[in-house]
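In the previous chapter we treated chains in isolation. Here, by contrast, the input contains two separate entities that must be folded as one system, with a combined length of 652 residues.
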Amino acid sequence: MTESQNLLDNAVQGSNLSFFYEPSQWVFQDLNFSFRKGAINAILGLNGCGKTTLLKIILGVLKPKTGTLKRFGETAFVPQIFQAVFSFRALDMVLMGRTRHVGLFSRPSKKDELLALKAMEKLGIENLALRPYPELSGGQRQLVILARALVSEAKILIFDEPSSALDLGNQVLVLRRMRELSRKDSLTVIFTTHMPQQALSIADEVLLMTAQNSFLAGSTEEILTEENLENVYGIEVKLLEVEKDGKKTKALISLFPDV
Amino acid sequence: MESNKTSSASIAPPFKTEQDSQLTPPQEPQDVTKSSGENNMNKSLSTPSPSLSLKAKGGYLFPLLILILLASVVLSLIIGRYELSPSEAFKILFGLNETTEDLSSLNDTIVIRTLRLPRILLVILSGMGLALCGAAMQGVFRNPLVGPEILGVSSGASFGGVLALSLGFSGGAALIPFSFVFGCGALVLAFFLSRLARQSSTLGLVLAGIVVGGLFGALTGAVTYFADPESRLPGLLYWLMGSFARANPDSVLFLTIVTIASTIPLMGLSWRLNVLSLGDTDAASLGIRVSLLRWAVVILVSLFVAAQVAVSGGVGWVGLVIPHLGRMLVGPDHGRLLPISALLGGIYLLLMDTLARTLAPFEIPIGLMTSLVGTPLFAFFFIKLRGRGWTND
């Protein structure tokens, strides 16, 4: 692939990124990766390896200490299940996604309100519009925050450990939504996870963050091999192929050998 | 640096968990606002233009509060040690009274025009501004225990006032500028302190405010201690407890200008305030320049607080208590919360001040009144009526 094609194809590109909160305690160093436009990109790694920090750098909330990060398009953020301090209505929460389109001293217009409702409708949660956000269930909250990201019209959606606090059924629902957004709406999806299964299920590309200075980036096939996963997690794993209705799915199981 | 995870959430959780474990029964009966919201929701689904029914409840509240405020003004104009009838008060207020040589009619005019009217205006401006600023600060700091005084500005302004009085300037001409300048100085000090600590997060600001407030509190103590107990001390102590008795057209004009300059931009920023109240990371990802906006709010609030202390001395608890009442009535959206809190604050402080000058044969310091009434009110809101604005979880 040539350099110019690269630029056209990439949604986010990081080169030689390093970051620390306290000097001399690197969260990561010399991180290189590129996330393709319209693809689903997973950032996979152990707890505390700097996934969320990297997300904040991609969002522009934190600045890298070295290296450069290029974004080709606006980003919208879907945090982990969001604890609100104030009890805004769900509709108000979604409307906040329009903030970039609202002038400094103005408020969202009727049009913004309609767009917010449309986004909620798309996710099937328009009936929650007037409910106080804190009273919603975890799955409902995640969808409200997703609607907030959609209504911003950003082309790059960034999820921080989506569904990590949800039950299995809701997890799969959220992952399916993410895949739809990539395949049908051509949005770029970037998400962090510490569960390899999630990356296996939907990701096209994976950035596997292992230890401070080592990382692997590439297609899901290339990166999520039994060998790599065993190295990262330090356990025995097995990748299985499951076939249903002629379609293949990969499943990951960890082995518990008899003692 | 302002947007790291720990700082944005650092103040709120203790409060929330405390509520969790002690104050909330898990199954709270549905409150009125909630059920009316759900009725609206059903309507909105069946109608093609849902935005009409999406309007928040309580549209009647605004005119109602304005009426109550006007009624309080009339009440405050006519009662006091010198009683007047409402009709007389109106005539004098709008210049409709016949000019007579009658001494009592002249007295009436003086009482209304030069004593009560400026005082009432000053009290209303103070109450409105304090409540509005308190609501904005609680949003920005995401904390219900925050008031407009949090940055030590009122301590600075109090010190300025006490200094002016101890130096023998008793008139407003020197007192107000002294107090105002020291209040603003306190903010500058807090700013550099939080910068030095390389913290512009809410926690850094609160810590800087505690330091600055403590410092000026100590200095105020020192000046009070060394003040001449015969000539200076009584006036100084009296001023510290707050009083609107000094109100005059100049102080009204001064506070009017500062109030407009600070509260109008704050209300204009109401949507940005909503977004900022979600927390730093979320707000930043939604396109807010978090640090800049927070400082803008803090500066606007501090300007008002410094000016307010300068004209009356310290009036505590209004900015802390009233926003809670406002949030219970209209929810957390600052577009409605700020004006409603302002009206509530104006009414509340006017009633307090009217009581302060009529309850006893002497005038009760207003700071004493607002603290005596404000503290139990605060406890009441905090314990009984929570959950309508602050979350349950």
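Residues 58-383 of chain B form a domain with the ABC transporter involved in vitamin B12 uptake, BtuC fold (CATH 1.10.3470.10). The first helix of chain B runs from residue 5 to 9. Compare these points with the single-chain example from earlier in the chapter.
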